[in-house]
Amino acid sequence: MESAALANARPGVLRRAAAGAWHVPAGFVFLLRHPRLWPLAALPTLAAIVLVGTGALGGLLLAPRVEPVVLPEPGRLPEWLAVPMTALLWIATIGSCAFLGLGLALALSAPLLEQLSRRVEARARGMAEDASRGLAFELKESLRGALYFLVAAPVLFLLGLVPLVGPILAVTWGARAVAMQMTDPALTRRGMAFADKRRWHSRWRVETQGFGLLGMLGLIVPLANLLLGPALVTGGTLLVVELEDAAGSRPRLAGAGPGDAVRG
Asked: How much is the pLDDT for 263?
């Protein structure tokens, strides 16, 4: 009954998607307005610059080698079909390699991004909820989230090669992976295992998909993509907090009192 009432109280799909997407620029703005968070964002930003750039360059070098393997020989397809298929192949190759670079950057800087997420929540809410099941649980869930994001890169590439609907499928899949990864630190602190996170994202599918879609577009925006990792983790944390407050479901450890929350 409570879930049904909540669903009926939600605005329309477009407004919910836009509300989720808004948290991408909100992440950038929040970081810019809080200089004390910059040291935590510095190393992940540097890692993203190096690895996303390396990935894009690798895709640029890889595309000419992939083209003769995937596409028919020149002259065997009409020009009107060969040109868009070639362009699609190059975009899919470069984009998936850049996506893979971002995944590696996020995996390497995961501890700093978790601390950044914790500080963001503490500043936004006054405290950071912590129902974590311990360090081993956090490490395992962080690894599973990173692997999910890294596996998304080759899937993104393969989907991008599907004629007509491929780019739509690739962006949809990539957006889900972005939303899962960027909300991972905040959801792990709430004691959620991977299956719990998937259920959470299913419940808020429209909002998180909107967030992920705009985050995917951020990969191709010059300068903005350099801060993408920290900004999206910041935005993802703010999204979790706001959706949690909207549902009235702020978690607590069993038997915990107000003093058990972590204050920033």
From this structure: 37
